[in-house]
Amino acid sequence: VQLQASGGGLVQAGGSLRLSCAASGWRFSNGVVGWFRQAPGKDRAFVAAVRWSGGSAPSADFVKGRFTISRDKSKNTAYLQINSLKPEDTAVYYCAAVDRSNRQIFSQLALASTYDYWGQGTLVTVSS
User: Fold this and answer.
1) Residue 88's closest CA among 119, 63, 57?
2) Cβ-contact 20, 79 below 8 angstroms
């Protein structure tokens, strides 16, 4: 499985971006794709996850109302829509995937160590 993240860029505060995570070699219908971000000088932080088969998945508290995660199975692509961008959203955004989803994995989707595959990251810079 290879993941290719894209869609980052420089935007003004209040703007929007849609990040994409294209997966190749993805043949597992029961997996999960997660988004993480790493701001300068900070640890990598969980943003949100989406189950490839559908259903609920966890997200961080800060995403409520501004971030939307989705996936298009026909395109093998996951998306992270970010609206009303703030300077504190500036970070490298990474997508990650795990090709199975059981109760243990589902309970640990906010942990980077749960994921087996990682994309290279896409930089989002928000100017004030």
Assistant:
1) 63
2) yes
The helix/strand/coil state of 2 is strand
* C-alpha R_g of the chain: 14
Classified as helix, coil or strand, 1 is coil
Among 95, 91, 84, residue whose Cα is nearest residue 22: 95
DSSP annotation string for 23-79:
EES---TT-EEEEEEE-TTS-EEEEEEEETT-S---B-GGGTTTEEEEEEGGGTEEE
pLDDT digits (tens, 9 = 90+) for 75-126: 999 999 999 999 999 999 999 999 888 888 999 999 999 999 999 999 999 9
CA dist 71 to 49, 53, 55, Å?
A: 10, 10, 12
